[in-house]
Amino acid sequence: MKKIFNGILFLVVLSSFNFNYAQDSIDKKILDESCSCIKKIKYNIEKASKIDSINSCITQSIINSQSEKLIKDLSKMMDTLKWNKKDTTYVSGKNLEIIADKDFDKIQKKLFLDCPNVKELMMSNDKESENSISNKKKAKEYYHEGQKYDLNEQYDLAIVQYNKAVKSDPDFAFAWDNMGLCYRKLNRYEEAIKCYKKSLEADPKGTMPLQNMAVAYDYLKDYKSASETYLKIIKNSPEDAEGYYGAGSAFFSNQDYENGLDYMFQAYILYKNTNSPYIHDSETLIGNYYNFLKEKNQIDLFNKVAKKYNIQIE
Predict the structure, then answer these.
(1) Is residue 100 a part of any domain in this protein?
(2) What CA–CA distance (Å, rounded) separates 153 from 41?
């Protein structure tokens, strides 16, 4: 297991502070441009490609911002041009450079907190299987109509169309998934869970309905069912950090602190190894867990689990 030194100490110290300290030091234009770029990323690609695309959006926005500033600086420095006897020119002034990763971590963290496109993209899993998409023309028409309403946040109308789609084809997994998501956005969690279960009946290998079902259980504060669902996600996708992250949160909320820490540390390491934007969320929760257990005089439990993953708190 890869050893991580000092990183957790850093997040523990910062966990009680609001991230607003970074807002003033980050150009809002970079955040807006990155978020808009992320919105254009396709959902039906591999998780690693999603992460790479998100990071590319951030890097390109940083470069664009610095390029604009560089051009302005060059324009100002044209006034300082001097001529020598050989009619050659030189420019006096500061060095001009572009640093493509300037404030990258701060920007990535801020986007995770404030750009909804990041979470929606990382939570999506639209890999097609045999029953993902219907081969019935009418069902697909209803489905596409539902998507239009969905995009316009007209969730009630979207549900009507998705319901028509699954009546035309009861095995239309993506229609069940989307209908469940609409119910979830309307805070109708029990109905959302029913849709996700129907999706799994149509496509037992589906990961998106499992993920969304676990989230719905979280909202209902049914942490036992949530943790059981997250464990199924881990079994199906052991290399995907989201299952570990969700399990860690659910176990800890259910006062099973050791398992909560264990799974959250695993999520942190997986996020770190893939440079995922979700690493910042896991850092925050681990910091909160540290402070919580410290107040309960159970810091030895935190150190025990940290040691298991070769994470040293100094």
Answers:
(1) yes
(2) 19
Residue 186 lies in a domain: no
| H or E element, residue 90 | strand 89-90
How many Cβ atoms sit within 10 Å of the Cβ of residue 21? Answer: 10
Structure token pair of residue 294: 């410290």
CATH number at residue 53: 1.25.40.10
Decide: helix, strand or coil at residue 16. coil
- CB atoms closer than 10 angstroms to residue 152: 10
Count CB-CB contacts under 10 A for residue 103.
Answer: 17
- Ramachandran region of residue 91, left (φ > 0), alpha (ψ -120 to 50) or beta? beta
Assess if residue 61 is contained within a domain. yes
Whole-number Å distance between alpha carbons of 280 and 31: 16
DSSP state of 4: E
- Token pair for residue 22? 């970074």
Measured between alpha carbons, how far is 20 from 52 in angstroms, rounded to an integer?
Answer: 26
- For 1-135, where are the alpha helices, taking DSSP H only? 7-14, 28-39, 47-77, 104-114, 116-123
Rounded CA separation 75/127 (Å):
49
Q: Which domain holds residue 13?
A: 4-127+207-312
Sign, CA torsion 256/260/182/109:
positive
Residue 296 lies in a domain: yes
At 6-51, the pLDDT tens digits run 344 434 433 333 333 334 467 788 888 888 888 888 766 777 778 8
Could you read off the pLDDT of 132-173 as tens digits, one per residue?
A: 778 899 999 999 999 999 888 899 999 999 999 999 999 999
Phi, psi for 259 (deg, rounded to 5): -65, -35
- Length reported for the chain: 314
Q: How many CB atoms lie within 10 A of CB 4?
A: 16
pTM as predicted:
0.67
CA distance 139 to 69: 52
In angstroms, the CA 22 to CA 307 distance is 31
Between the alpha carbon of residue 225 and those of residues 60, 136, 188, 277, the distances in Å are 41, 34, 17, 27
How many domains does the chain divide into?
Answer: 1
